[in-house]
Fold this protein.
Amino acid sequence: MRIKGIQLTLMIGPVFGIPVSRDILEALTSIKVDTHAGDTQSGFELNFALDKRSPLHTLFLVTGGAGIPLVRVVIVATVNGTPDVLIDGVMTHHQVEPGTGGAPSTLKVQGKDLSSVMSYIDFSGIPYPAMPLFARAALVIAKYAWLGLVPKVIPAIVEDIPIPVDRIPRHRGTDFDYVSLLARRAGYVFYIEPGPVPGANIAYWGPEVRVGIPQPALSVNMDAASNVETLSFSFDGTARTQYTIDIVEPTTKIAIPVPVPDIGILRPPLALRPAVALKEAPLPDTSALNPIRAALYGLSQTAAGADAITGQGTLDALRYGHLLKARGLVSVRGAGLAYDGLYYVKSVTHNIKRGEYKQSFTLARDGLISFTPVVNP
């Protein structure tokens, strides 16, 4: 499928995707890809026009789930000669909707990224003696090297190494559930980043990366220079909460409330005036944890509500000239003193049809007013 300035490549196959035939590309009517930050799985949806002699009957309807353990789907967008893997995943669901008025039937194929494969089997009970959080995460991810997953695991800020005579951590649930649980305990995120080439993926377990070179600016209210169709912001002054954790003094067994430190040690601020924590609350059940585990739990809960500003918008990729990517920074200009500046891209949805490439997105930041005097175009 070709769109002015953008070429799309679709790869489908058992376990490893291969480029599809021209007949299948001609039957493809639309593509939707959802990419999220955090531990939410990314997903995709393909819509095909289905006639009685279509090879899609063999590719999806017959083979999907019958004798072949998984059907892999890779979607690549090439912009100005640079390929960008939108998603590398597996089919999880398909359905056929009969056509009306002589129109062909529609085949809808849905799926998720490769983290879906990590959700197939429950491994509850496997012991991990004397292993810190990051070591357990790396060991679990290593099982999936055959899918092209390369682990990128960052040790926690404060490591809690369990002593075997005291406790032995055990696996809980599926691999995806357990690795995501470990990430939340450390105040981290876990997701699978497709690319940089088709068939390769990075399984990232670490803090949200809110540093680096920002993507080309999103311009609003700038007449001919505007490159977004819609962009709105909302500020929630009650989003942040100052939490306290109870640390038990070993001699007197008295619980001492200790404020959770600033989340800035996990991620740098993006605004000159971060939102003030108007609420204060104790975190329950922290007195039963050791100080390190209690601190990690406090940081994870503080990180979950640190963003007070949310931006929602849509753009035309052809006018923008690039593909906006989730899990990175982007500049905003033209929105005014309070909302201009750098934002973290929380999610991006790609909506692709013949001759059209739209993106909807969600931005997040911790406060008002940019701390950078100039926004790069």
Notes: The chain has six helices and 22 strands. The longest strand covers residues 82-97. The chain has four domains: 2-114, 121-206, 218-234+308-370, 241-304.
